[in-house]
């Protein structure tokens, strides 16, 4: 206002003044114009300065408030424009060019002086408390494998970061780093984002029906008899269940025996188990794994995994499928994107040995940075289950026997009541698994592997009635799986129980005939037999006497007392072991064994457990 008033007054003075002499008038006009222009420029400058200062004050933020907000448990996702030509301002462009110039100077000096180029200047735009996070992220993506492993180790051992810093790693790390963190014992679970949201189920659909559709979409040709059996049983039972649900009735239908054995279970859960067992068999075929992934199987299995948190048997079958799919490296990215790594990282920390071991198998098959071996279905590493810097000096293999399991066989039962009662799935009914706890603690430089395969006393209880697998067939299958797991690359000690000892003998005999398996023979250092029926078992005779009730399985029939097949196996093994550089230790049982809740039997007598020739 004052500037405008001044201009008006000057104009009036010029207009009302008397006309002086011509020369004086000319210079006076110039002076007035200069005064007017100078006043205008000065006033405008003062006005602009005032407005700029006022705007700056209005936009200035309290930096302490910003820092306090950044330290809170928020996830910060900084969005940047994809348009490289976008104008970021002169200051930003100048700063960027300056950083480029500094890095070029440092790189040139490093080459001249032959010094490694430090990455410290990659953090020029990062605040001090964030430097460690971004440096480790950069290091984890290095071309140097050792640098990547060191970065993952440092991340896993860091426990003083704020929550948002763990989340930065979770969002910015690559799949290799994520898998490495999942396989690191000390990793914080905040490194792992929640799995992505699952797709909604279709209208008038259920997980049971979706699972049935997934199974029906898999190829049904060129399958062995057991896969065909499980598939047809699952599809038949699911059809009966769906029809009963829609019709308001519940009908057994199909094969009624599985329902009779699990009468107390919810029918839908039983049908889901049939479908999962069939998909487990399908997942052993690589092309079928591709179909499972393409048809949304990873998401559907994750939905089932969440729904059945209280059913370990369902969860273990799901993990078996994921572990089989992880054997195919081209599916790794899909498995990671679907969120299974985060789920398995949590399962690895479970105090349940079975759950942790299944998760360890999946992550080991995904980890191609530190694991060269592949663990097929039924091969579980009890130690080490995490990444370790401890060099492995030898392998110890545990092979269970008839009606045994990879984990249950090697548990110390804590009371006589647990012996008499029917074994159930609850792991809390048993004490710890001694190979994983005692042996791993006493000998940390060992890789301890436990093997699992299906066996049964009677065809009534066989999971696949069409399955007639002899000792020769099983030994060939196990030998192939163990070789894929790297057994034979270092010294090996075999520990077997019951029929497992017969499998070990058969595997070594078969390996001696195959040049590609020679390392298994050359690196075998010892064999321990726990109550192995080298000359047969009374169990087979007992089963034959009541064969119309038990329908003894092929495994039991092969254990007949003084069986010619067992005699030939024993003679061949003794001849084979004469000039081999390994020791054999036999243990015999002196107490009877409970088979179920009613039968008490001395399965392997002392005279049969002796490994000497008869």
Automatic annotation (TrEMBL):
Keywords: Endoplasmic reticulum, Lipid biosynthesis, Lipid metabolism, Membrane, Mitochondrion, Phospholipid biosynthesis, Phospholipid metabolism, Transmembrane, Transmembrane helix. It is found in: Endoplasmic reticulum; Mitochondrion membrane. It comes from the Eukaryota. The keyword Hydrolase does not apply. Its main location: endoplasmic reticulum. InterPro entries: AB_hydrolase_fold, ARM-like, ARM-type_fold, SERAC1. The keyword Endoplasmic reticulum applies. It is a single-pass membrane protein. Gene3D superfamilies: alpha/beta hydrolase, Leucine-rich Repeat Variant. One of its GO terms (biological process) is phospholipid biosynthetic process. GO terms for cellular component: endoplasmic reticulum; mitochondrial membrane. Belongs to the SERAC1 family. Facilitates the transport of serine from the cytosol to the mitochondria by interacting with and stabilizing Sideroflexin-1 (SFXN1), a mitochondrial serine transporter, playing a fundamental role in the one-carbon cycle responsible for the synthesis of nucleotides needed for mitochondrial DNA replication. Plays an important role in the phosphatidylglycerol (PG) remodeling that is essential for both mitochondrial function and intracellular cholesterol trafficking. This is Protein SERAC1. The gene is SERAC1.
